[in-house]
Amino acid sequence: MTTSPLRSSRRAATPMAFVQAIVRGYERYGVNPAEALAQAQIAPRDLADPQARVTALQFELLSGFAMQQLDDEALGWFSRRLPWGSYGMLCRASLGAPDLGVAIRRWCRHLRLLVGDITLDLAVANGRATVSIAEHRALGDFREFCLVSNLRFLHGYASWAIDSRVSLMDAAFPFDAPPHREAYPLMFGEQVRFGAARASYSFDPRYLAMPLRRDEAALRTMLRRALPLTVLQYRRDRLLGQRVRELLRTRGTEAATAEGLATLLNLSSRTLHRQLQEEGLSLQALKDEIRHEAAAEQLRRTDRPIKQIALAVGFRNEKSFSRAFRAWSGLAPGAFRRQRAAAPSDAP
What is the reported pTM? Predict the structure, then answer.
């Protein structure tokens, strides 16, 4: 007996509860889900097993088939159908936006034209951009899957549109932690909170200024798949290097190690190193850049002894600092200071 490629191509991590939610959509419309389950190679007997999992490919096939067969991309969540093509229309309506912030606001506004059961909103405050969902009617047994899916769709679209993983600071959900809570960090990052007032996620607001990098041709290619809006394929975070630089400048001892930085960024240290490498960066190179920047600033602006500057920027002694500074700038620290002192002032 051979193993199904659908079951073996990727680790099975999608909880059976989400499959059950799609089956409930079939029940709402009085349609037998057997054909959809067969397409995804999901055994009906597995539906009752709360510990069972399916692969991302199985779930994509199931969802795509169900959306078309039921002609409802909301799969029964709302008081009216979202006909096949509705999410493609949301993508297209946001595609011409000048930046991600405008695109997200367009998505939220146009979704209101399609459904009244929920609304999505983007707010920026206190160094955080937050997408949240307001519920306007009881969603019943569809609630978890509806809220998770709508956040995932918009997060995935945002990552696709700017061709960059939008790293989340945290996510929150207005229900108790489900039995399959271990699936949530895979979807939303490590910082997930349950029992919140609303479903939401937050991210660095600088992503909102990033321009969209996709066109109509790319959209048509993306929409050939039923559920293409996943952040998994956008492994590069175009803001990560900048965020690491800022933490190294401002968080001192908290950011002194890879583990400390990873904690501040809500990543594992392994993920931090991998994503920096995908940006063509390394943590050591970024640390050296910030130390050089701080040392050069002190040499320009202060009369502190070079030994004190060496210790202040993290070197054990003046000799190792001088060697490193020469490699960075081509000058010894003393020569750099004298050169800057001799340069004409820019001040009027």
Answer: 0.73
Who contacts 338 (Cβ-Cβ below 8 Å, separation ≥6)? none
Report whether 255 contacts 264 (CB < 8 A).
yes
Element (H or E) spanning 130, and its range? strand 128-135
Query: How far is residue 201 from each of residues 111, 126, 147, 294, 297, measured CA to CA in Å?
Result: 18, 14, 11, 34, 38
| Full strand arrangement of the beta sheet holding 128-135 | 118-125, 128-135, 199-203, 168-173, 192-194
- Distance CA(174)–CA(216), nearest Å, equals 36
Task: Render pLDDT for 251-261 as a digit per residue (tens, 0 to 9).
Answer: 888 888 999 99
Contact 306, 333 (CB under 8 A): yes
Distance CA 103, CA 105 (A): 5
Enumerate the β-bridge partners of residue 119: 134
Residues in the chain: 348
For residue 102, which amino acid is it?
V
